Amino acid sequence: MEQKITREMTIDDIFKKFPSKSPKLAQEMTNTGLHCVGCSAATWETVEAGMYSHGMSDEQIDTLLGRLNKILEEKEDLTTITITEKAAKKYNEILEEEGKAGWGMRFGERAAGCSGFEYFLDYSEKPKPGDLVLESQGIQIHIHHKSTERLMGCVIDFVDGLHGAGFKITNPNVKASCGCGNSHGY
User: Fold this and answer.
1) The pLDDT value given to residue 105
2) Are strands 184-185 and 139-144 parallel, antiparallel or unpaired?
3) Which H helix or E strand runs over 94?
4) Where are the domains of the chain?
5) H/E element, 50
6) Topology of domain 82-185, per CATH?
7) Per-residue pLDDT for 163 more than 80?
8) What is the DSSP letter of 46?
C-alpha cells in the first residue's frame, strides 16, 4: 500500500517517514507559509494544526497535501545525478559571473551536521583522477568515486524562497535527515 502524507501527521513524522524526500517536502511547506519547518520550531505539530495556526483554510491544507503527496510520487533515477533546468541555469549564470564559463560542477559530501553528512558543490575545471564524470543539462558533474554509491539518484535543484535562495539536494539513498535538510545520514 502506498503511503501518503495526511493532515494528522506531524512535521517530524513526515521527515522521519520520508527522509530522502525531506528537503523537497520542507521547501514546499516553507513556500506555503510554514516558515517554522526549516528551524524545527514546530515539527511536533500536525500539518493541520500548523496550517490552522498560520490562519490557513481547509482548502489550503488540502492543496498543500496534494503537492506534498505529488512529491512522494516522483520517480528517482538511481543510475545518475540530475541537475534541474532551474539549477543548471543558475549555475551557468554563476560560472559566467566568475569567469569560469564551461567549467563543471564538483559534487560531494563531507562529515558534518547533526545527522552525519552534508553536501557540497564547487567549481571544477576538470575531473580529478578517479572521479566519476556524469552530465546533466549540459553540465559535467565530477564526483569522487568513493561517494558514488551514496550520491547516485540525487537531484540538484535551485530554490528561491522567503528564507533565501540556494541549491538543494534530494537524495533517495538517505535514511535520516535533520528537519532543516542541512545534514543527512545513511
Assistant:
1) 98
2) unpaired
3) helix 85-97
4) 11-73, 82-185
5) helix 47-53
6) Hypothetical Protein Aq_1857; Chain: A; (2.60.300)
7) no
8) B
